[in-house]
Design goal:
Arc Repressor Mutant, subunit A, mainly alpha, about 65% helix
Length: about 180
């Protein structure tokens, strides 16, 4: 029995094909078949696409087109299930595990021993459960908290000393 004309064309082109399609060639092909790229006034679109693919002949481009059309028809007919694509563009953010009191104490001991900035040594010799980048991140937050705490103490001590000064003087506070 003789093959259908469509199948015969595919078989002939497949015989003409010496190379397989690389990922890059498929991407060039896919971009080239976009109607705006291809141009509706084109007499021979396969020739125009083949011109963009130096290692492919017009017959190979035609076969690739026919295979694409066949795949689309099979998908639309329900013969092939649609692939499940991850539609999320943002990767899920991994939440960090909070530092324990013990880890923080080890961090402070490592800080005294190796100093500020030697996160690798602190990680290796003191807080072995954390990577150097995690130790560095913790240090950044640690020093910010320390700075805020000191600022709060300074503010408190300043307002306390003003309070004692104003209550010890006999003149009433001015409200200007």
């Amino acid at each position: 029995m003789e093959a259908a004309p469509f199948l015969r064309n595919i078989q002939q082109a497949a015989a003409d094909t010496e190379t397989e399609w690389s990922f890059e060639e498929i991407k060039i092909f896919e971009r080239a078949i976009i109607p705006e790229e291809l141009g509706f006034d084109c007499d021979n679109p396969f020739e125009r696409i083949a011109a963009r693919l130096p290692r492919k002949t017009e017959a190979q481009v035609r076969i690739q087109w026919q295979m694409l059309v066949r795949d689309i028809e099979m998908i639309e007919a329900g013969s092939i299930p649609l692939p499940h694509y991850n539609t999320s563009t943002k990767p899920k953010r991994r939440r960090g595990v909070p530092w324990t009191k013990e880890e923080n104490e080890l961090f402070e001991r490592g800080l005294k021993r190796f100093g500020k900035g030697d996160w690798k040594s602190i990680s290796r010799h003191f807080v072995e459960s954390k990577r150097p980048s995690q130790v560095a991140s913790h240090a950044q937050k640690y020093f910010l908290r320390l700075e805020k705490s000191r600022a709060k103490q300074n503010l408190h001590s300043a307002s306390t000393s003003n309070h004692f000064r104003s209550t010890s003087s006999s003149a009433p506070p001015s409200y200007q």
